[in-house]
UniProtKB/TrEMBL annotation:
Organism from which the protein derives: Streptomyces mangrovisoli
Signal found in the keyword field: no
Name this protein carries in UniProt: Amidohydrolase
First and last residue of the signal peptide: none
Coiled-coil zones: none
Top-level taxon of origin: Bacteria
GO cellular component: cytoplasm
Alphabetized GO MF terms: carboxy-lyase activity; hydrolase activity
Short name of any one Pfam family annotated for the protein: Amidohydro_2
Alphabetical keyword list: Lyase
Length: 334
């Protein structure tokens, strides 16, 4: 692949105060906040609050974002709403308003620099019947697709109720960014920020496994899905999935091919925080399936995503593919 002149970061977030204003005082919000507090624990919340507050300019002001991108050597960001805006507890009416508002607000943020900022919207994962229309609304705003979590309350991504959404995403060519928020291991992870360091890669692995083993990727081979955090634990431990598929009738019943083969139908960001793991990710899924990601501007992200990529000592061709060429092709950047 010819080296792209662009450096493209596919994992960057925007904070939308309008969303929190919309849900304030709504039935269910207090319970959701209490669950989030239990899952994270008091020590994590004490750190996260000030961390987010000091980053609000980069999260909300396009010029502050662009200045930070310049300092990182990033030309283009794919901007998605903070996962804290999912609010999958919301009723149908609130959820419909929320997705439309998120789509419109993200599009407005990106419109400040359309040559450098591309956006993703939200869909109500808790209400499958609304998702296809919410995706269409996001595309109508000029967004490239939507961001989803690893599950909604009572629903895994293998749920048949999501089939119309997968179909619409495949037919439109929309991008789907799989970014977990909240791990169902709950209070087991409420110390030392295990809710994030263990919870996020666990949720990525579970969600991707549901998509693979249920046959979603057989039925919708054209889905354009990017997994955050390098896909979590799954790509580097996919051999266990392959063994189960081959050795057990229950594991192999839902999908047509070895689980590892489906990894080359997906895309993965580079945010794994270890050059050796990044090299293994590239080996497992192919250099053409890895995209630069930073989790801008949160503290669990990388302030120097290109430097982190360089530390993996990939070949020149693979380095430039991950730095920007893969994303430029996927996002159809000129």
């Amino acid at each position: 692949m010819t080296p792209s002149p662009l450096t493209v970061d596919v994992h960057a977030h925007v904070l939308l105060p309008e969303i929190e204003a919309l849900v304030e005082g709504t039935a269910g919000l207090a319970e959701a906040r209490a669950l989030d507090a239990r899952r994270n624990g008091p020590a994590a919340l004490a750190v996260s609050g000030p961390m987010v507050r000091e980053r609000i300019p980069k999260l909300t002001d396009a010029q502050a974002r662009l200045s930070a991108m310049d300092a990182q050597g990033v030309d283009v960001q794919l901007v998605s709403p903070s996962p804290s805006h999912y609010h999958y507890w919301a009723d149908q009416e609130t959820a419909a308003k929320l997705s439309r508002l998120a789509n419109e607000a993200t599009a407005a943020h990106c419109a400040a620099a359309p040559d450098r900022l591309r956006g993703l919207g939200l869909v109500p994962l808790q209400h499958p019947g609304q998702m296809a229309d919410a995706l269409e609304h996001a595309l109508e705003q000029g967004l490239l697709g939507v961001e989803i979590s690893s599950h909604a309350p009572g629903r895994e991504l293998s749920d048949p109720a999501y089939e119309p959404f997968w179909d619409r995403a495949e037919r439109t060519g929309a991008l789907l960014f799989l970014h977990p928020f909240g791990c169902t291991l709950d209070e087991r992870l409420d110390r030392w920020y295990l809710s994030n360091t263990v919870g996020q890669p666990t949720e990525n692995a579970v969600a991707l496994s549901h998509l693979i083993f249920s046959g979603v990727l057989d039925r919708h081979p054209g889905l354009k899905l990017i997994a955050a955090h390098g896909g979590g634990y799954l790509p580097t431990h996919i051999g266990r999935s392959d063994h189960a598929w081959s050795a057990r009738s229950d594991a192999g019943a839902g999908c047509a091919h070895l689980p590892s083969s489906y990894l080359r139908r997906l895309w993965f960001d580079s945010l794994v925080h270890d050059p050796h793991v990044l090299r293994e990710l590239v080996r497992s899924v192919g250099a053409d399936r890895v995209l630069l990601g930073s989790d801008f501007p949160f503290d669990m992200g990388s302030e120097d995503p290109v430097g982190a990529l360089r530390a993996a000592h990939l070949s020149d061709a693979d380095f430039h593919a991950v730095r920007g060429a893969n994303a430029a092709a996927l996002l159809d950047l000129a």
